[in-house]
């Protein structure tokens, strides 16, 4: 049990080494777009802040279904793509 706690603590300190902007849409970019709309960098930060192990996704597409914002309100997302081509360049891709 102790090692589990240490693992969580190590993960909590993860900071991105660099960041670049998305150029083309993909499933990963779609999910990053959803995290960033809800006010998080990415899945790593979301899991740190909300202390969750699993993010709820649509089984059909694998896209994120719902996220809890920092003010505890929820964002609900569609099964289909939501990040339009004109918004792809706004998505920040963090490298750890």
Automatic annotation (TrEMBL):
Give me the Gene Ontology terms describing cellular component.
nucleus
Its signal peptide is none
Cross-referenced Pfam families = Meiosis_expr (PF15163)
Question: What's this protein's family per the entry?
Answer: Belongs to the MEIG1 family.
- Role noted for this protein: Essential for spermiogenesis.
The entry's protein name is MEIG1 protein
Q: Which gene encodes it?
A: Meig1
């Amino acid at each position: 049990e102790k090692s589990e706690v240490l693992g969580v603590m190590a993960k909590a300190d993860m900071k991105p080494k660099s960041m670049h902007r998305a150029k083309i849409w993909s499933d990963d970019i779609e999910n990053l777009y959803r995290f960033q709309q809800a006010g998080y960098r990415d899945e790593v930060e979301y899991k740190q802040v909300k202390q969750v192990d699993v993010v709820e996704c649509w089984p059909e597409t694998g896209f994120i279904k719902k996220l809890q914002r920092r003010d505890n309100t929820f964002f609900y997302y569609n099964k289909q793509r939501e990040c339009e081509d004109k918004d792809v360049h706004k998505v920040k891709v963090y490298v750890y």
